[in-house]
């Protein structure tokens, strides 16, 4: 109970209300003391007026008048004459004098606090203005024991009332907070627990209903998060199913390509010059296809094989990539160029680097062909002190906005209409396996440039 939000709010409310009442208590007691003293001055004035009416009052009647007024002496100043109207024996000398004709608030509060903490009874002199201007001033002497007792009694009643007000106020606020805040928060927690039990179930997504602005914003944010998470989980399931299917296809395709690889060995023995020129490329293509099938099987197990780093002559590798793409663009208004130093060598996995460059060049080719305009694709490279930089640039129409948002995410970042985005996702993963980065340097109406950075 006390550890709950409503319980702590109840305690804090009670404490704060009590603090506020204590701040009110001090000036209230000071005001009560002033009223008490003014009342004694008024009673003393009435008693002195009785003496003025009859100048021959006996001592017993004077004592009764002083006792009723709860004072020891009464001095009345009238017509510039100061006259002792009523008097009785003084038990002790006067300890202090208080003038109530024009006191400040701080003086009243300070005098009240001093009176509360002073336990020893004292005799004090009090000066005030007579009621209805019946004289210039009135002065009385009185004991402080009854004054202090009355102030303590009044203060206890004030504190008791404050405690009752605090408890009632805190209880009402407790009910209000429980209804307006705690109950909706518990509802949100309940939705979260129910959703956590079955996040794929769209029926368990929270429906925002709160009327409090902050809670409504929290429910809206939770609704959005749960919706996106449910969609992501469904996408993950579809990808898992697709991965299983691709793994099965890759397994069978690998067996078919292995058989084709056996036939190419015989083709290489042909005497036809054209066959002799094309056979090595066919063998290399089939070998890469077999390796790709094996890599796909590993990717389906969420295990991209680590690169086998060797010294790779980059110019030859780029030439193979461009020759393969040229075969696919015969008759198209598309040209290829390369700017790679012939002596440039780098440490990389040749098959994986071939896949990366092939994916980038193929994406550029498809984008230019889809635009229906002429274009050029260039592969360039340069060697720096700490890294090798390979750039694939084209003069195509540039990447669409949607493709830029999820560029390296499978099934989200396709650069051409109908594309899956797998090429860039796989390429990015392969480059990261080399300790490098694949990034989009720029894109626009004048073309696109991708940069591969491999550490030396």
UniProtKB/TrEMBL annotation:
Residues 248-456 form the Histidine kinase domain. One of its GO terms (molecular function) is ATP binding. Its EC number is 2.7.13.3. SUPFAM superfamilies: ATPase domain of HSP90 chaperone/DNA topoisomerase II/histidine kinase (SSF55874), Homodimeric domain of signal transducing histidine kinase (SSF47384). Residues 215-242 form a coiled coil. It catalyses: ATP + protein L-histidine = ADP + protein N-phospho-L-histidine. The chain crosses the membrane at residues 9-30, 154-177. Pfam families: HATPase_c (PF02518), HisKA (PF00512). The keyword Transmembrane helix applies. Keywords: ATP-binding, Coiled coil, Kinase, Membrane, Nucleotide-binding, Phosphoprotein, Transferase, Transmembrane, Transmembrane helix, Two-component regulatory system. This is histidine kinase. It comes from Aliishimia ponticola.
